[in-house]
Design brief:
The complex is a heterodimer of chains A (194) and B (214). Chain A is of the alpha+beta class and 194 residues long. Chain A has 8 helices and 3 strands. Chain B is α/β, with parallel strands linked by helices and 214 residues long. Chain B is 50% helix and 14% strand. Chain B contains 11 helices and 5 strands, in the order αβαβαβααααβααβαα. In chain B, α2 (29-46) packs across α3. Chain B is globular. The mean pLDDT of chain B is 94. The chains are: A alpha+beta (194), B alpha/beta (214).
């Protein structure tokens, strides 16, 4: 039997202590970590287990491999806008400022969402790379107009199970004035119809 | 949505790049890593004055970032992995328990066989590495203790494998388990504040100061 591996969390020092071992045993009681999740015990996943039981395997694979699930999940991202805005009202004006849309569209916002943002001086640029595929796009934001003076850069790589979501959802709002209008009108209506 | 992740870094006077890349079924993991390589080349061409790059990856983004670092396709000054998947076979077993393994892109995107899964598993690659992996940048591997999408054992096992390679990597690769944090929280905290944001910003500032002093 191998020795147990213990991951410590000490906020100030980020100390870690993971012992050499041939097997994976995490000792949660040593640092108040919860037990590892039982993958088959989460009721939130019952719907997935139900789909697996009830749909033919080839249909499940078709939905995955045809991009159907990707389109479904990508387009459902807009549904997350409302709960986020209810919890973080300033996120909308911040988002618009980060994408350089604040001056154009702020008049659409209800007053309680058009609070001043810290990011009015942010300079935004969209870069296409590679084969210029719709998803091969980089959203770059500089803290001020004088971007040549800003040498450190943080590069963020989103998740999404290798197949879902991405900055393309954001890109829609930045590229087309018509799409910006449609999405912001949707947001406005959902906010005012609580 | 992802643009909001830029907020804490912009306040710290850092430029931020949110990288989009092709996803399954358009391409597999190899194509995704190649996209990251091309995106970094594009950024370096566009902003030659940038001399300090922090790479932050979340979930599968942390996975392909780590594959890029291990293959030498990506070179950065430091890496932050949030709620990452680092062992494909182990994660497939977890997804099977959840009932999502047939609709999840994981299996085909990572090659569809045990051999390709092993080749695309950073934990396995590190454990069987023939060199000392000294080219890896300083790393913060961060995971939520309440994560039910990717269990925190993923990060624990990866860091364990890295620490077994050499003593120098014990100094530069840190593990942080946040007990009360869920899978999406690590990204949401960067957007709206929370303990992940505090931890990441502190670590990046600490690492930046170390680099400057050296």
């Amino acid at each position: 039997m191998g020795r147990s591996k213990v991951a410590h969390h000490r906020r100030s020092t980020f100390h870690t202590s993971v012992a050499r071992s041939d097997e994976t045993v995490v000792a949660p009681e040593a640092n108040r970590l919860p037990p590892l999740p039982d993958p088959s015990g989460n009721p939130n996943d019952d719907i997935f287990r139900s789909i697996r039981r009830s749909l033919p395997v080839r249909i499940q694979y078709f939905m995955r491999d045809s991009g159907f699930f990707r389109a479904l999940i990508d387009s459902s991202v807009v549904l997350s806008v409302r709960p986020i805005l209810r919890q973080y009202p300033s996120s909308l004006s911040n988002f618009m400022a980060l994408r350089g849309m604040h001056k154009c569209w702020r008049w659409l916002l209800p007053s309680r969402f058009s609070t001043e943002t810290d990011f009015l001086s942010v300079k935004h640029k969209s870069l296409a790379y590679g084969d210029k595929h719709g998803r091969q796009v980089i959203q770059v934001m500089h803290p001020n107009d004088n971007n040549k003076q800003c040498n450190p850069m943080v590069v963020f790589i989103h998740g999404g199970a290798w197949g879902y979501v991405g900055p393309k959802n954001d890109q829609m709002t930045g590229k087309s004035p018509l799409m910006s209008f449609v999405i912001l009108t949707h947001v406005f209506l959902s906010l005012t119809c609580f | 949505m992802y643009s909001l992740i830029a907020q804490p870094f912009l306040r710290a006077e850092k430029s931020v790049a949110i990288v989009g890349y092709r996803t399954y079924p358009t391409t597999d993991v190899d194509g995704q890593v190649n996209d990251l390589e091309r995106a970094m080349d594009c950024l370096r061409r566009e902003y030659p004055a940038v001399n300090d790059i922090t790479l932050v990856g979340h979930s599968s983004g942390a996975h392909i970032s780590m594959l890029g670092l291990l293959s030498g396709k990506l070179t950065v000054d430091r890496f932050v992995g949030l709620s990452g998947v680092y062992d494909i076979a182990a994660h497939y077993c977890f997804e099977r328990g959840r009932g999502v393994e047939r609709i999840s892109p994981l299996a085909p995107a990572c090659g569809g066989s045990l051999e390709t899964w092993r080749r695309n598993s950073p934990t396995q690659l590190v454990a069987t590495a023939s060199d000392s992996l000294d080219g890896l940048p300083p790393m913060l591997i961060c995971h939520g203790g309440l994560d039910t999408t990717v269990p925190y054992s993923s990060s624990v096992n990866f860091v364990n494998a890295v620490h077994c390679v050499s003593n120098s990597l014990r100094q530069t690769c840190s593990l942080l388990i946040l007990p009360d944090v869920e899978h999406a929280d690590t990204a949401m905290h960067l957007m709206f504040g929370g303990e992940t944001q505090e931890a990441v910003m502190d670590w990046v500032a600490q690492q930046t100061a170390t680099t400057s002093n050296a």
